[in-house]
Amino acid sequence: MRGYFAIGVEGMSKEGNFGNLVRTAHAFGASFFFTIAAEKRFSRPGTDTSRSSDHIPYYPWDTPQDMLLPKDCRLVGVELTDDAVSLPSFRHPTKAAYLLGPERGNLTRVMQDQCEFIIKIPTRFCLNVATAGAIIMYDRVQSMGGFTERPVRVGGPTQERVHLHGKPRFRSGTPDALKG
């Protein structure tokens, strides 16, 4: 899969959700995990059984102004609002940081204004933050991972997708060194 992604939460308060989400981020191949204005600094909770802190960095930013994302990384807010793009209709950026709201509330207006995109999971009501994060990461991997198309019939594909490389293309013809 090309690019990278990170996932984080604004205003996180529950250690169990932190551990579950950071473990899931590690499993899906996140490049880093972050919190903004968390109620406390999290260490390795019991729910993080993969010991993700040994594998991916964790950035605990105190305020939205402290957040420092890599160059060209696009901030994608996840919030259940009327004007948010529904997840199945969203094309994920190659370089993205997904930001979820806290367990007991929404992304602040300051954070929503910093997001380039706001997306929503098409549910009737808000989900647990760790569950919502898992759905976002699954959708990213599923849509960008180079998997075979889903078959028309029930079941899986009959063969794996194989990438075929074509002959090299040169703008001004084949170089003399390659003619033969």
From TrEMBL:
Keyword hit for Methyltransferase: yes
Protein's UniProt keywords contain Phosphoprotein: no
InterPro entries: Alpha/beta_knot_MTases, rRNA_Methyltransferase, SpoU_MeTrfase, tRNA_m1G_MTases_N
Keywords tagged on the record: Methyltransferase, Transferase
MF GO annotations: RNA binding; RNA methyltransferase activity
GO biological process, one term: methylation
Ranges of residues in domain tRNA/rRNA methyltransferase SpoU type: 6-138
Name of protein: RNA methyltransferase
Species of origin: Cohaesibacter celericrescens
